[in-house]
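Hi support team,

I'm opening this ticket because the web form for multi-chain structure prediction keeps timing out on my end. I have pasted the exact lines I submitted so you can reproduce it. The total is 724 residues across two entries, so I didn't expect it to be a heavy job. Is there a limit I'm missing, or should I split the entries? Thanks in advance, R.K.
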Amino acid sequence: MRLLVHVAAATLGTIGWSCVLHPPPGAAQTTTKVISSNPLSNTPEAIAAGERLYAKFCLQCHGANGDGMSPRWGRVGADLRKYWRGYTEFVNIVAAGRPEKRMPPWGAVLSADQINEIGAYLETLAPDGKWGD
Amino acid sequence: MLSSSRASFLTWCSAAAVAASMTATSPATAGSSAAEIRNCTPENWCAYHRTVDTAWRHSPLRQITRENVRNLRPVWLFQPGGEYQGMHSTPLVVDGAMYVPVNPSNVHKIDAATGKRIWAFAPELDQAITSRSFFAHTRGIAIGDGRVYVGTADGRLMAVDEKSGQLMWDKRLVNSAKDTAGFSGAGTFVSSDLLVIGQNGGEYPIEGRVFGVNPKDGTVKWTFYTTGRDDPEALATWKGDSWKYGGGGSWQPGTIDYANNQILLGTGNPNPDYDYCGDKCRDPKADGHRPGDNLYTSSTVALDLTTGKVKWHFQEAPADAYDYDASVGEYVLFSDSEGRELVLHPGKNGFNHVHERKTGKPVNVYPDMKNFNWTSGFNLRTGEWENRLWPKAGEKTLVCPAIDGGHSWNAGAYNPDTKLFYRIANEWCMNLISKPKVGGKVLVGSEERTTEPFAQTFFAADWEGTNPPGDRVHGRLTARDPVTGKIKWERRYDIIPHSALLSTAGGLVFIATYEGNLQALDAETGGVLWEFSLGSGSNGGIVSYAANGKQYVAVVSGHGSYVGRALAEGYYKDELKGYKEGRLVVAFALD
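Hello R.K., no limit was hit. The queue was backed up. Here is the completed structure from your submission:
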């Protein structure tokens, strides 16, 4: 968790304390404030809910272990065992997608809380307990 | 072996080929009329498997022979650009023009003698779909009556003017924004009144479909639902409403049996991929996502050309627990020495299936791969696959062949002169971890059906590639009697090749390896007679045609495809390290 805080703090230095989620084209034009670190980290209920959501929406590309190895398509997704760009950007990418990387936008499907729950689950997949390192 | 009409036709074809090669006349002018597509003169490559009614991938041209193939030289290159998924396709050639399908849903028309581009068709696709789809690739197109037919990754069928490259009509057949699935395989041009094309998407919770379409305007004349809608026999093989989400589809072209007014094609795997119900999976009352045999998924079906109804079917993996869909594999039509009219289908399950063409009665079902354990074989007397292996829930189970099949979608070839069938079999296995629904929790995959578009792939297992017991993963090219399966010769390839094969009347078999070599083999012995380095592996077709009286061989090259990724990322991490996806077409001719 200490490492997460470190990463979040480093991220804040460059992008600020909060950001605005940009919904995908065609989605309801709402803006959602999200904080830049995961408020649901280490919350058992959130982790359990995040696991179910991850299995439904993420696993097909990012794999059962979150390492980016799809059970069907090979290496098609990013390794999610670490927030490579910090937590805020993780949330942004989940919501807005990355078309150039074949990442769908889920902002019109998943709430901010649900994205946080997925994040809470991903934090449990970090190798050797070094999530966020 | 051949019916008399077919033998006569081939004799005529051979004579025509020799005449063309001897006189170096101008290209044939038959165009892409329905009669030409049905009969396909030797200079042309009229359909995905060259002919719509045999699927032999055999060119009757005989200018390039065993004796002179050593003089084969590259004469032009064509680079369509981009790299995503490499190239999967087989080009078509009509009247000296080549039509090259390129991912996603693009077509380039080029001069088949020079490689010079004539036009490019790049339709505006729905990026919200294609940027997320797993199937934004194109393996083939169809041609007929002056139109090129392109099934698009975003669910439409388009017709393009063969001469100008201009769009003629554009019909949405699949709601890809909802279903995720679209089109990736070639359609089959049956006649001026019918084109048949299937959608992909066995991995998705949808009703897979095959469409009979009017090629003049894209109007749908009939629809075949691969999970059995309105078919009591099929619906009895699904629990509850699981058929509504059963997937299937049909993503490769079929072969037309004109004499029996039917098209033979294969259907995709059921959704979800794998299930956790173990040895109870065939019981429609069992617990699971889709218990029952799940007709007509993972099956060969003979569809009536007039109505689209099933005339006969044969399920190659009942209650498919391994992703052994039957869409891969060509439907090779031929007659044996007893005059029986037969069809051969190499299935993803690793077996070659030989049926009586009219009735579907199995004549022989034999393994084309050495390493298989999902069954001990098919019993012709009982009509059952025997000793099925059901992955044990929660345990790592060795299953052979692996998910991408004992046969993949790279087609084989049949030579009517040698009467041999040439095919690549994949000797690979997987450790499958099928997970039970324990305590309300599925450990791998979603515990509930996923219907949200683009989250739709729904697994009940995880897997990892592994070697067959006591051996290393490898590919085998065999030359067999297609009915008995007796092997005349075979070659081992340490890295599984993934190109389609080409047979020619010059006594040759062409193969493009995954190391990047185009090889010409002696059709009688399998010996390598000529080799050329393409610089990248191949996942597509090799074709032969004539332009201005000269015979050419052309190959599509470029790493890519999901099977290619499985090779590079799963089985050959060292041997294929650093390879990138790419796209190239190379044509060869004699000096």
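A quick check on our side: Residues 1-35 of chain A have pLDDT under 50 and may be disordered. Let us know if the file doesn't open in your viewer.
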